[in-house]
Design brief:
The structure is a single chain. With about 500 residues, the protein is of the alpha/beta class. The chain is built from 18 helices and eight strands. Helix 7 runs antiparallel to helix 8 and helix 8 packs antiparallel against helix 9. The longest helix has 23 residues. It is globular and about 65 Å long.
Amino acid sequence: MAPAATRSTIFRLINASQHSACPCHGCRSATHNHAHHGALALNQLRKFATPVQTNEKEYAFEVAASNLRFGEGVTREVGMDLKNMKARKVGVFTDPIVAKLKPMQVALESLESQEDLPFEIYDQVLAEPTEESWRKAIAWARQHDFSHFLAVGGGSVIDTAKTANLFTVYRDADLMDFVNAPVGKGLPISQTLRPLIAVPTTAGTGSETTGAAIFDVTSRAFKTGIANRALKPVLGVVDTANTESCPTAVHISAGLDVLFHSLESYTAIPYTERTPRPANPILRPAYQGSNPVADIFSMWALRTTVKYLPRIAKDRGDHEARSQMLLAASFAGIGFGNAGVHLCHGMSYPISGLNKKGPKYKHPGYVVDHPIIPHGVSVALTGPAVFQFTAPSSPDRHREALAVFNGVTVTDPSITSIPDSEVGAYLYESIASFLDGLGVPRGLKAVGYNKSDISMLVEGTLPQRRVLDLAPNIGNVAGEDGREHLTRIMEASFEY
C-alpha cells in the first residue's frame, strides 16, 4: 500500500502556505508590505499556468461548461440546431465503428432533413488518438474551412473534433503550440473558435462539457493534451438512446473514467492553494482546483456512478442505469472541467502510452486492431493506492468518498469511528473491492507490466504538470520528493 506523505514534505507545504497576499490583482504597490519568503519558498510552491513574477496564490475560480440537452432521441434535433446557427458548411467527425451505428445514422438523417445544409464526413478518428491521427484530422479540416463542427462518438471523436476546430481557426499554428506545457508551448487561445456540437455515444469522458482534449504522444510514450475553455462545445446533446449498442467492456471503462473524474476533482487541492495567480484572466487555467461549484457536480457523479455502474456491468440493457451514467458523465465533466484531475489521470497517461511498445496488452471486449489499455482502465489501475496516499490531505473529503463506496451516510458509526490516520487504508480496500466487482485488472502486473517498468512509468508521469500540480500531498512534484512518491504509488499499484 502507498505511504502517507513524509513529514518533511508536509512541513515544507505548511511553511510555504504561510505566504500571504492581498486577494486582488491591483495590490502590488510598495504600500503593501506582504511577507515574502524569498527564492526558497518560490521554488517550493507549485508552478501552474503561465509563469508570472510573483508566487501569489489564486483568489478566484471560474465556472465554464457547455450547454447541455438531455433526453431520449434528442440526436434528431442536431440538424435543426445547425440550421438555426446558420451553418454554412459542417464538418462531421466520427470513427469507423460509430459510423455504422444508429447514432450516426440518426445524426445524418437530421442533417439531410435540412435544406441547404452541406456537410462532409470524417470517419477515420482513432480510438485513443495519437499525434499522427490528430494531424491527419487537422489537415482534412483545413482543406474544407468548415463554419461549424459536429462530433458523434466517444471522447476520442469529440476531442479530435475540438482539435480540428482549433486548427481550422489557427491555420498556421503547429499542434504543439497549444499542447500543455512543458510538453508543448501551452499558448493561450485568444481567437473565437467555430461552433461545435458534441453527441456522446459513451458515458465516460464528459468531453461534451469540457475544454479538454487528450492524445497520445507516441514518440514519448505518454498522453497529454490541450486544456482551454475555448475548446468546449457550444452544445452537448446527451441522448440516452446512443449508448444502447455500447459493449459491456466499453460501458465499464467509460464508467471508470466518470468515477475517477469525480473522485480526483473532489480531492484536488483547493483553488485558493494553486499558484501562481494568473497575471491576466485569460491565463487562468481550466483546471483550477476543487471549488464549491465543482464539488456539487463531482459528488453527485460519484454517488450515481457507484450506484449504477455495477448494474450496467451485470446488464448493459438496463435503461435506467445507462441513462443515469450518461448524466453522471456530464456532471463529472462539469466538475473536473472546472476543478481538474490529478494523480490517477497523470499516472494513466504513461500506463496507456507505454503499452504500445511494452506489454502490448489488448483489453477484452474492445474491437480494435492495436494494443489498448482503455483510458478508464488505465486510470483505475492506480486508484486504490492514490487515494490512500492523498487521504491525509483532507480526511473529511476522503471519509465522504468512503461512505459513498460503502453505501452508508457519512454520519454512520462505521465511518465516524475510523481515525483520520486510517481513512486512507479503508478507502483503499473499498475502491479495490468496487473495481473487483467490475472485473478490472488488479494492478499493473495484470496488464503485463514488470517491476522493472516502474521507473519508465514514473518518468512518463513527471511531465504531466497540468494535473500533477493539483495533487494533494505530493509536494514539489518536479523534485526528488515528487519522484519518490510517484514511485512508491506505482509500486503499491503493481498488484493488489
